[in-house]
Amino acid sequence: MEAVFALPYGPRVDWVRNGEAAGGFALVRKGERYRLDDLRLVHGPDAMALLPWFPRYFLGALGTEDVLLARPRRVS
């Protein structure tokens, strides 16, 4: 399973650059902590194809062309 983050402000935003420099980042979702690593940037049509149809439509209208893929691992 991979986490997919649309990047409407592009791949050079601080949180993406910081995650790349650190080799990953932490995320809390619904009270569960995750470590996300194995970060990969995907650009263009291949990136947009990773999103469900409605976010793809909405974000495409905004000019979004990038997504960040990450491998989540639950942290206890």
**Straight-line N-to-C gap:** 18 Å
Number of DSSP strand runs: 4
The biggest beta sheet, please?
Answer: 4 strands, antiparallel
Shape, principal axes of CA atoms: globular
* Strand portion: 35-45%
Helix-strand pattern, N to C?
EHEEHHE
Helix percent reads: 25-40%
Structural class: alpha+beta
What value does the Rg take, in angstroms?
13 Å
> Which ranges are low-confidence, i.e. pLDDT below 50, for 5 or more consecutive residues?
none
In order across it, which strands form the biggest sheet?
1-4-3-2
Number of discrete helical segments: 3
Give the overall average pLDDT.
94
Structure overview:
The chain has 76 residues and is of the alpha+beta class. It has helices spanning 14-22, 45-48, 53-61, and strands at 3-6, 25-29, 32-43, 66-75. The protein has a 4-stranded antiparallel beta sheet with strand order 1-4-3-2.
